Amino acid sequence: MRLLIGPDVGLAALYAAPRTPWLRANMIATLDGAASGESGKSGSINNAPDKRVFDTLRGLADAIIVGAGTARTEGYGPVDTPIVLVSRRSGVPDKLRGAPPGSVLMATTASADGLAEARRLLGDDHVLVLGDDEVDLALLKETLAGRGLVDLLSEGGPSLLGAMLQQGVVDEVTATVVPRIVGGDHPRIVTGPPLDVPLSLQSLLEEDGTLLARWFVGR
User: Fold this and answer.
1) Per-residue pLDDT of the chain (219 residues; tens, 9 = 90+)
2) How far is CA 165 from CA 16, 96, 156, 200, 207, in A?
3) Which CATH architecture has domain 42-217?
4) The dihedral of CA 69, 74, 77, 80: what is its sign?
5) CB-based burial of residue 146 (10 Å sphere; 0-12 exposed, 13-18 middle, 19+ buried)?
6) d(Cα 75, Cα 210) in Å, to the nearest integer?
7) Contact (CB, 8 A) for 27 and 117
8) Domain locations in the chain?
9) Which 3-state string (H, E, C) describes the chain?
10) CB 68 within 8 A of CB 85
11) Is the pTM for the entire model greater than 0.85?
12) Cis peptide before 114 (omega within 30 of 0)
């Protein structure tokens, strides 16, 4: 089935969560599996079809979950949707340090070196200590749902997605494949220990060679 992205395609309805809480991971890669281009950022390989789906997913989300390192590398700044940073060190990226109160949360560990600073920058209520040395991602999902944040969008990076899949908290992987080959030693969309996660394809869009797939986990 070939579906073209355009004004006749209701992306918001197509990508709506079937239930809540729901956590989807949105990632992009080239045909040869690179999750970034020569700049080291995913933005260097995205294109217009991917951007339309990206914007749709952000519009649907109650919160955006992202690794603090990815937020720093990609230059995340404040947006209308709350950003939840995941970090074992509690380091708040520079562009998010002056964000309005409550627009940035930190999921971190009790042993994090930057815990006190994160609390000072973000406020005690917005720093979630969810483990001693590793962030308990299942508890993060549960905690966010308890705050009314039930439609969750993770934007990576690869290490965070690997951890989320290992801990069994991902309901959906939304994956864009762009029609490019870049070679090199770029990371894939998942890094970390070996995994074997079954997926089922829910929808597949195509525009100008760009493939945008929606995969459900474990179904």
Assistant:
1) 345 444 446 899 999 999 999 999 999 999 999 999 888 889 889 999 999 999 999 999 999 999 999 999 999 999 999 999 999 998 999 999 999 999 999 999 999 999 999 999 999 999 999 999 999 999 999 999 999 999 999 999 999 999 999 999 999 999 999 999 999 999 999 999 999 999 999 999 999 999 999 999 986
2) 21, 27, 12, 15, 29
3) 3-Layer(aba) Sandwich (3.40)
4) negative
5) exposed
6) 25
7) no
8) 42-217
9) CCECCCCCCCHHHHCCCCCCCEEEEEEEEECCCCCCCCCCCHHHCCCHHHHHHHHHHHHHCCEEEEEHHHHHHHCCCCCCCCEEEECCCCCCCHHHCCCCCCCEEEEECCCCCCHHHHHHHHCHHHEEECCCCCCCHHHHHHHHHHCCCCEEEECCCHHHHHHHHHCCCCCEEEEEEECCCCCCCCCCCCCCCCCCCCEEEEEEEEECCEEEEEEEECC
10) yes
11) yes
12) no
Tokens found for residue 56: 């749709």
What order do you get walking across the sheet with 210-217 strand by strand? Answer: 127-129, 104-108, 83-86, 63-67, 151-154, 22-30, 172-178, 210-217, 199-207
Confirm if 50 and 19 have CB atoms less than 8 A apart.
no
